[in-house]
Amino acid sequence: MTSSLPLRSLGEMLSAQKTKTAGVKNPAMPYVGLEHMASESSDLVGWSRAGSSISTNSVFIAEDVLFGKLRPNLRKCVLAPFVGYCSTDILVLRSREGVHPPFAAKVCQSDAVFREASATAIGTKMPRTSWGAVEGFRVFCPGESEQRRIAAVLDTLDDATRETEDLIAKLKLIKQGLLHDLLTRGVGESGDLRPPSDESPQLYIDSPLGKIPAGWVVAEVGSLLADVDPAMRSGPFGSALLKHELVESGIPLLGIDNVHRERFVPEYARFVSPTKARELSRYRVRPGDVMITIMGTVGRCCLAPEDIGDALSSKHIWTLTLDRQRYSPFLACAQFNHAPWVLAHFSQDEQGGIMSAIRSDTLRSTLLRVPPIPEQHRMEAILAAFDQRFRRETDLANKLRTLKHGLGNDLLTGIVRVPVAEEAAT
Question: 143-192+373-426 with 217-370: one CATH topology?
């Protein structure tokens, strides 16, 4: 920020409110704790009744800025949407005359203010900042008309991001239902789901996994593997790959950080030389291989992308090459991630309620529902189209968040000024 910009201290923009409950409060009124404020979010994620908090609370009114002073690195700050009480670990800040409350909230949510709050926090395990420590921090503060325009621009981006995130949450629920229907009812030649078994029992047969559509079979994973050696592998182990044989660049060694649920992350941290990769060729990853995590979040599954290139699997994942003439890796991945009959089978390897690994025998003996290949392709096409839409909305949400962050910093530091006079004339 240059000296020519209109600057004011936070204390000149906002005043800290000191009103506390003195043992008497309306138990039906809203109470906001730090748990109701999400990191880097401009909205409350919930609230409780004041009766749920037995301690002394601070009092706030609508359009006060609520700023989390405990562990300020978590970046918790919202504009209060109603009157209520809040934890004393939250600063209650009220806009002074000539300061637009939504603009004040945006300023307090900025990178610069959160950095200052974190830098002034005292304590090791539970660091706290204070109003006295940050109120002298100077920020960009134009006239009220420009404040309103800045707040309106950023609110528009917030609204668009919120709507997109709400849609993504709905799509996740829809996909759960779609997967259940596809894996239990399948798709006829017309492309429509079959009627459920209780409506048309003649279309279904009994199987070890319950009712399945006529024409389907149930098969173990081991019987669906491709004719390659080995079609199912994990490793290398022990002396086959020593720590000093890892290099800074070369052939990537894939691990749990690359395998997310139905999403391969092409960010590589471990490599071996081409010569070492030839020695470990039995662990080569092929396009479309099914990859399942063994450590960390056990049982997370995705497909190796078709453009994977040269890469090796590691001892932290199972890598399976399926016979695509008999089974779609895409449908196998869907069942590994979501099918209750698969998850129940994997639970055999749980210890103390936690799945610590998936043994070879457990994976090979896992039962999958196997429709005829033409129907598998129809099911795969439906899921792929849905996933494409989901990725589109997710990409949009990420772009909106990036845009808001970049534009917000520009607007709230005065690097970019909004054309208030021109807007008013228009």
Answer: no
